[in-house]
Specification:
By secondary structure, the protein is α+β, with helices and mostly antiparallel strands. The protein contains 15 helices and twelve strands. The strands form three sheets. It has a five-stranded antiparallel beta sheet with strand order 2-1-5-4-3, sandwiched between helices. A five-stranded mixed beta sheet has the order 7-9-10-12-11, with helices on one face. The radius of gyration is 48 Å and the shape is rod-shaped.
Length: 535
């Protein structure tokens, strides 16, 4: 014998229980209302209220018990039969005590027809037929006059027709249930979680959704608000989509039964419910692994980029650090050779002055490179400390120019100053001088020997310093990149330096709660503007 497919829930119970509950209430109410009808239409009949009410209580008692007893729910068919048998027996009791009145004969027929029509299984129908036939034969035996009527043949005819009708009805019900089971199996077999909701209330859900959200049974989800299954932000997006009644696909953060979060992709569309109502079918896909893979890919690409930057930095740093060291080494070797030859000019004041000047300049360059690398390390660790004090920005710019005097002289750039008088700002003097020196150094590097203009202005509570050159300029697509570490507008072969100046300058300015911007175009020079709060 082929084993019946098992489902993760009791389909028979779920589909039959609501039906039996409704029938128990309705049959009880109708059977009680007959008392009033008999009293009105057949005055003087034997129609005791208490006995009829007792029969009704059998029906309503079973209905109430279904909410408290799992056993009653599981065996609802038998308990329903108990209630209907009690009502049928009571009607036969009234029929007997009303001396087989013809009106009660028709009432008896109607009661049997009504109860037989309510039967849902062949087993319950067979049991009821045997019970009714036994009652009818017994009543026929107790009332010999009834045997000369068509009462018993009429009962047999009624139950025979009901029996035949039930067979075709059960066949149709079986087909409908099998179709429902097939649909349920199909939905439960999908990898995606699916639910149907009206407004925000979940009406149904498949097993994949139950497992995805960490529940044991779909009835734990049914009746919940769909917004209770996701975070507040995701609920806000979902509510907006529902309000607009749009078919949508978006990512959200879901909440499992145990409170843990996971990433999911949601696809939803409108669905026609009964009576012209519109519901919403939602499909959930757990994309946690996909998110992890994407994050891993991002981290891998970032590590590759970091590796590229590191290799480029090592290449640039080794070249830049080697240049001043090579110059110092060359000067010391040449001096040593002169000393070894007992060259009298080796100790001349002019020779010594030139030697010391060149070594000092290369040592300063080496020191600048090392300080830049140390500043990057401080910035990365969040240890770039500022010592702010009221500072004359005019004197700060003058000091910066003086520190770069030799470099500016060698570059041949003319410096044009346009400074407002008595501009004071609350800044770290050393760090802001470092910013201006970096900007001036870049302007002379890229300025092609043309004039460089420095503007200092104060507007209200903001101080602005701009450094404009007339060199090659910077293309728009590179203007954001040049503020990154180890980045420059041109290749390392053309311009010396580690590519850290603008990065450090931007970090210093931002630490002062200011900003630095660039305005430039190819072959039109570049203008770097530093905006700082005065206080």
């Amino acid at each position: 014998m082929k084993k019946k497919a098992e489902l993760p829930y009791n389909f028979e119970e779920e589909t039959s229980l609501p039906y039996y509950r409704i029938v128990l209430v309705v049959v009880g109410a109708f059977y009680l209302s007959w008392w009033f009808a008999v009293e009105a239409l057949l005055p003087g009949s034997f129609n005791p209220f208490l006995s009829r009410f007792a029969a009704v209580l059998c029906l309503w008692g079973v209905y109430i018990a279904t909410f408290f007893s799992a056993s009653v729910r599981k065996h609802i068919e038998w308990w329903f039969s108990f209630g209907t048998w009690a009502a049928t027996f009571h009607f036969y009791y009234l029929f007997y005590n009303n001396r087989l009145d013809i009106a009660w004969v028709w009432g008896c027929y109607m009661a049997v027809i009504a109860v037989a029509a309510l039967m849902q299984t062949m087993r319950s129908m067979v049991s009821y037929v045997i019970f009714v036939v036994a009652l009818s034969v017994g009543l026929n035996y107790l009332s010999p006059n009834l045997s000369s009527t068509l009462f018993l043949p009429g009962i047999l005819t009624i139950v025979g027709i009901a029996f035949a009708g039930l067979r075709s009805r059960l066949k149709l019900i079986s087909q409908v249930r099998e179709n429902a089971l097939q649909v349920r199996r199909l939905l439960d077999a999908t990898f995606e979680g699916m639910c149907l909701h009206d407004g925000e209330v979940i009406l149904d859900a498949n097993e994949s959704m139950v497992r995805m959200f960490g529940y044991n049974h779909r009835h734990e989800i049914i009746g919940q608000s769909i917004f209770a299954l996701c975070t507040v932000e995701s609920a806000r997006i979902g509510a907006a989509n529902i309000a607009r009644q749009v078919e949508s696909s978006y990512e959200a953060t879901a909440i499992r039964k145990d409170g843990t979060h996971f990433h999911m992709e949601i696809r939803a569309k409108m669905y026609a419910l009964k009576d012209g109502l519109q519901g919403r079918v939602v499909a959930f896909q757990d994309i946690t692994e996909r998110k992890k893979n994407e994050q891993t890919k991002i981290l891998f690409e970032a590590s590759q980029e970091a590796l590229r930057i590191r290799n480029e930095f090592i290449s640039i740093a080794s070249h830049e650090l080697k240049t001043p060291l090579t110059s110092i080494k060359l000067q010391t070797q040449m001096t040593q050779m002169s000393v070894d030859r007992n060259d009298p000019l080796a100790y001349s004041p002019e020779r010594m002055k030139k030697f010391v000047s060149q070594v000092d300049r290369q040592a300063n360059r080496l020191n600048t490179l090392i300080e830049d690398m140390l500043d990057v390390s401080r910035i990365s660790l969040g240890k770039l400390a500022l010592e702010k004090e009221p500072t004359s920005m005019n004197s700060l710019i003058q000091d910066s120019l003086e520190a770069l005097a030799d470099h500016i002289k060698q570059s041949g750039n003319e410096i044009i100053l346009k400074l407002d008088t008595d501009v004071v700002a609350h800044v770290d003097r050393f760090r802001m001088e470092q910013v201006i020196i970096n900007l001036l150094t870049n302007a002379t590097k890229y300025g092609e020997g043309k004039p460089v203009t420095i503007n200092l202005t104060k507007h209200g509570s903001e101080v602005s310093i701009s450094v404009r050159d007339q060199g090659m300029g910077i293309a728009k697509e590179h203007q954001e990149r040049i503020f990154a570490r180890f980045e420059r507008a041109v290749t390392a072969k053309n311009i010396s330096g580690l590519g850290l100046g603008l990065y450090i300058s931007q970090q210093i300015v931002q630490a002062h709660r200011g900003n630095i911007i660039v305005q430039s175009a190819p072959n039109e020079g570049a203008c770097f503007i530093v905006n700082l709060p005065a206080e």
